[in-house]
């Protein structure tokens, strides 16, 4: 068997007491409030992901899903354990994160592309498709600060799926935006990303069933189930009923 593309071993993240966080666009959009007391957001989690797997991360609010994605992406350091990623990793884990609001949509595409490891020439070749998919032709030269949340989501999503990567992380990206774009985005994830390794966070079991073959369930930062999507959803839903 090939080496796993993502190897997560006993990973843990302890946020110190009084840690503060500027609310992400996603949080603001979803009007969420968070309580940042010192605690293990992710605790002793281990799993492997093989090439071509599409894996969902299921769990209630605050169960550690986004933190786990940030650990895999390397934007936050683990307190314990280790993560090995074999391949180029990309995706969209916080809506609009990495956008500069004073710059135009077009300039932000270049900025993001460079951050994701592309050369300017490569971005030149992709930019029309990115703008077209995001349906932002008429707005692309306006500063991002004039964009609605939906427009930012469309742009971020479009960049994420057009930039080549081996492993793509998608955090609730299909939860916002209007119905029509959501449908188009779901279809894009299904077709564009065939054969790629996908890690997908979503509260929509409907979307999870359409995209992922496997799933893990987190509860209070711990991995409590790992298996095929159907059985993981069943486990997750039963667990939620018990609590209610
Ligand atoms: N920067 C931070 N500093 C301190 N605590 C944090 C920080 N980010 C997240 N947390 C805490 O870690 C826990 C897990 O949060 P996380 O965002 O990973 O959960 P989630 O499962 O993605 O939640 P949701 O479904 O609401 O997006 C929460 O209790 C949260 O308050």
From TrEMBL:
Pfam families with a match to the protein in the record: ABC_tran
Molecular function per GO: ABC-type transporter activity; ATP binding; ATP hydrolysis activity
Domain ABC transporter: 25-243
GO cellular component terms listed in the entry, alphabetical order: membrane
Keywords: ATP-binding, Nucleotide-binding, Translocase, Transport
Stored SMART domains: AAA
InterPro entries tied to this protein: AAA+_ATPase, ABC_transporter-like_ATP-bd, ABC_transporter-like_CS, ABC_transpr_TagH-like, Bact_Polysacc_Export_ATP-bd, P-loop_NTPase
PANTHER family: TEICHOIC ACIDS EXPORT ATP-BINDING PROTEIN TAGH
Family per similarity comment: Belongs to the ABC transporter superfamily.
Protein name: ABC transporter
Organism in which the protein naturally occurs: Alkalihalobacillus alcalophilus ATCC 27647 = CGMCC 1.3604
């Amino acid at each position: 068997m090939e080496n796993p593309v993502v190897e997560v071993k006993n990973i843990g993240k302890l946020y110190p007491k009084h840690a503060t966080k500027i609310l992400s666009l996603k949080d603001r959009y979803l009007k969420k409030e968070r309580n940042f007391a010192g605690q293990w957001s992710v605790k002793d989690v281990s799993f492997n992901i093989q090439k071509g797997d599409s894996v969902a991360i299921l769990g209630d609010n605050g169960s550690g899903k986004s933190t786990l994605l940030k650990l895999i992406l390397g934007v936050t350091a683990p307190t314990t354990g280790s993560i090995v990623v074999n391949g180029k990793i990309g995706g969209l884990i916080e809506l609009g994160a990495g956008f500069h609001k004073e710059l135009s949509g077009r300039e932000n595409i270049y900025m993001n592309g460079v951050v994701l490891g592309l050369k300017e020439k490569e971005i030149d070749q992709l930019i029309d498709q990115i703008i077209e998919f995001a349906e932002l032709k008429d707005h692309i030269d306006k500063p991002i600060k004039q964009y609605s949340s939906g427009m930012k989501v469309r742009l971020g999503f479009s960049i994420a799926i057009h930039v080549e990567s081996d492993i793509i992380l998608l955090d609730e990206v299909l939860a916002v935006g209007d119905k029509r774009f959501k449908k188009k985005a779901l279809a894009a994830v299904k077709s564009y990303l065939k054969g790629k390794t996908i890690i997908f966070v979503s509260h929509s079991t409907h979307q999870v069933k359409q995209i992922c073959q496997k799933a893990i369930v987190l509860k209070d930062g711990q991995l409590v189930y790992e298996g095929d999507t159907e059985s993981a959803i069943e486990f997750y839903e039963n667990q939620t009923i018990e609590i209610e």
